[in-house]
């Protein structure tokens, strides 16, 4: 079984506190050039992104299953709500709708005979990551490295990994990447995410799946 979700929640909590705390710490500085403040109306605060990611294999950190292939297609909404006085760093809220998620995996230990006979299985589903944060910096004119995290869920077409599991699974992710400006209202992104998925001990078993998700994205609209 996977480790207790307390560890996942602790990491997520540290992520949120760290991102927000960084902004507050800078806002308390006496030097106005080193302050964090709400994003002004003069800059574009909203964005929409289309992205796709794939993990060729899984690892064991919170989960216990290796060799899992995981992929997702997502549409992201971003709202920039904090900005450094110099404009070089920003903090944004993110929410992702996942119209397609898929996992391919072998039968896990103790799988029912039907699952063992079936062998490798691909499950598809849909998901939502409503609670996310992204902190972005700047390297030169076009290159913008970022750090992000998020909490959400995925609903699969069948119980995961077999009838002892659940269709509804919780997700946690944290990652880094770089955003490359391609125009006034267009940008590309390339990144890596550690992605954890499990049913939170609501099923008879909760093996947990940890994926190394590499993803590409396009920002096509700012408003």
Notes on the structure:
It is a single chain. With 223 residues, this protein is mostly beta strands. It has one domain: Porin, CATH 2.40.160.20. It has 2 helices and 10 strands. It starts with 5 loop residues before the first helix and ends with a strand.
What does the secondary structure layout of this molecule look like, with pairings?
Blueprint: H1 6-27, E1 36-38, E2 46-55, E3 58-59, E4 69-84, E5 90-105, H2 113-118, E6 121-136, E7 143-160, E8 166-183, E9 186-198, E10 209-222
Antiparallel strand pairs: 1-4, 2-4, 2-10, 3-10, 4-5, 5-6, 6-7, 7-8, 8-9, 9-10
Radius of gyration: 19 Å
What is the CATH class designation?
Mainly Beta
pLDDT average, as an integer? 84
Number of helices: 2
Oligomer: single chain
**Distance linking N and C termini:** 45 Å
Spell the H/E element sequence: HEEEEEHEEEEE
Strand-residue proportion: over 45%
The CATH architecture comes to Beta Barrel
Category from helices, strands and their pairing: mainly beta
CATH topology: Porin
Q: How much helix is in the residues?
A: 10-25%
| Major sheet characteristics | 8 strands, antiparallel, barrel
Q: Which of globular, elongated, flat, extended, rod-shaped describes the shape?
A: elongated
Q: How many individual domains?
A: 1
């Amino acid at each position: 079984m996977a480790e207790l979700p307390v560890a996942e929640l602790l990491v997520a909590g540290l992520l949120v506190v760290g991102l927000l705390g960084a902004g507050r710490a800078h806002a308390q500085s006496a030097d106005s050039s080193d302050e964090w403040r709400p994003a002004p109306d003069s800059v574009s605060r909203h964005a929409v992104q289309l992205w796709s990611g794939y993990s060729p294999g899984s690892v064991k950190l919170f989960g216990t299953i290796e060799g899992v292939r995981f992929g997702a297609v997502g549409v992201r909404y971003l709202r920039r709500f904090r900005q450094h006085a110099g404009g070089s760093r920003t903090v944004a809220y993110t929410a992702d709708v996942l119209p397609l998620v898929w996992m391919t995996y072998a039968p896990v230990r103790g799988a029912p005979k039907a699952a063992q006979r079936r062998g490798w299985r691909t499950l598809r589903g849909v998901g939502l990551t409503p609670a996310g944060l992204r902190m972005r910096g700047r390297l030169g004119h076009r290159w913008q490295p970022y750090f992000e995290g998020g909490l959400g869920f995925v609903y699969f077409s069948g119980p995961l990994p077999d009838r002892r599991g659940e269709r509804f699974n919780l997700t946690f992710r944290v990652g880094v990447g770089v955003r490359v400006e391609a125009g006034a209202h267009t940008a590309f992104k390339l990144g890596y995410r550690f992605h954890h998925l499990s049913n939170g001990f609501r099923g008879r078993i909760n093996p947990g799946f940890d994926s190394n998700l590499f993803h590409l994205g396009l920002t096509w609209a700012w408003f």
